[in-house]
Amino acid sequence: MLSVERLVKRRGSREILTDITFRAAPGRVTGLLGPNGAGKSSTLRILLGLDRADAGTALVNGQPYRHLRRPLRTVGSMLDGSGAHRSRTARNHLSWVARSNGIPKRRVAEVLDQVGLGGAGRTRVGRFSLGMGQRLGLATALLGEPEALVLDEPVNGLDPEGIRWIRGLLRGHASSGGTVLLSSHLMSEVAEVADDLVVIAGGRVVANGPIREVTVGYPSLEDAFFALTAPEPTAGGR
């Protein structure tokens, strides 16, 4: 279970997150949607212990991320691509990540095969295409066989076959009882895999619930999104 309760974050005098509250439950894929600058990345960074909130909580199985003894065994994440140094090989990158979390070495070969990089383990990351880098990021997230996955724009750079593959991966993880929190600006992809939606605009949650409830009364998820995130008219405006 991933739970965010009344989260507040300020940058200087500006409040960029206001009372953000939602949950991502086991057995379900939760889509986190919002326009650029809405607060999605800031929320995920706080959840994963990369930034601190000014108020509220963001918990993984009831604990702050920083309190997890072996975090990759509980939650696997991908923010900003693979996170690997360009001079390292894919295998070397995964090996040191595995050692840092007490993960068996055998998992390195297993996840490389799982994400379709079995033949590229000795290739330096600097030679990877964008799509290969995304796959390596997913391999890192899957390394500890975690209960929860937190992924930011995971289909970015993937070809159509890769996109179909990741849909199956996310649905399979949820079907086996895992938790998936998926942040994306590609509404068509979220619509394909999500059970629940959290829509953020202007640093606030404007919709939260099962996808069929959030989109009721709208022809499509895209129509619902634009209606929910449209700026409020200013006083005296037309």
TrEMBL record:
Superkingdom classification of source: Bacteria
Statement: the UniProt record of this protein carries the keyword Nucleotide-binding: yes
Family: Belongs to the ABC transporter superfamily.
This protein's name: ABC transporter
Entry GO MF terms: ATP binding; ATP hydrolysis activity
Residue span(s) of domain ABC transporter: 2-227
Keywords attached to this entry: ATP-binding, Nucleotide-binding, Transport
